[in-house]
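Page 42, continued from yesterday. The earlier attempt failed because a stray header line got pasted into the input along with the sequence. Redoing it now with the clean sequence only.
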Amino acid sequence: MKFNRFFILIFCALFAVSCGSKKKVITTKKDSEREGVITESSGNREIEGVKPLEGTPKLPPVNPRLYTVEDYIRDFAAVAMEEMRLYNIPASVTLAQGILESGGGKGDLTMRANNHFGIKCHDWQGARVYHDDDARGECFRKYKDARYSYRDHSLFLTERKRYAELFDLDKDDYKGWARGLRKAGYATDRRYPDKLIGLIERYRLYQFDADVLKRPSPSYTYTPEEPESVTYRVKKGDTLYAIAKKHNTTVEDLQRFNNLRDTNIAVGQTLVIISPE
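This time it went through. Structure tokens are written below.
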């Protein structure tokens, strides 16, 4: 009888160990699968040996450095034209401002917040980000989609009295709009109108105004200015992004022209800046 009890105890112990071993194997398998799913979901990338989640798109193999102004125009021309139909702001001007303010879609503020026009918080109640611009850590509006940035730009201009005179201009008078925006205080850069007009004529953005108005597209011969090499001495509070925006260039170009490995700059440092083409 004692022998039987002893045999039963040994059998139960072996069975418990066997069950624990199987449970451990199953848990490991599930953990492995769960890790794959988390990584796949968070990055939307296909992982070797892990099947992509159904309905999850793969990230396009696009390098932001290869994203051109022509790509930007292709992606946002229709949006600018729709805003023109609704709010009477020339699509050419909206696109030129978007290109200039967003660094052709590659600016840090645009990448982080879908903010294509550098509009600050002011009385904004929505999401926000903090970004170094004229001062350090300024508050900027953040949008879920770039299209909301375009709509907010339209509302920003139509709802403020200081821009009212612009809407008395002809709907395709992009030169009058470019000069009027600076006069009304949209930008302090004295070359802001010239930069907008240069972009509009270089990339023939006026054709989108003509399409909306159903008018023949005007024909201009764009003659680019000779590139001018200038220098800038870094001041307290400056950031590489703010300097690039001020001089209508990009952070990447400033880094290349000055052999900078990162975005760190020092007060008193002289940077070589190439003006736009």
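Notes: The longest helix spans residues 2-43.
Reminder to self: strip header lines before submitting.
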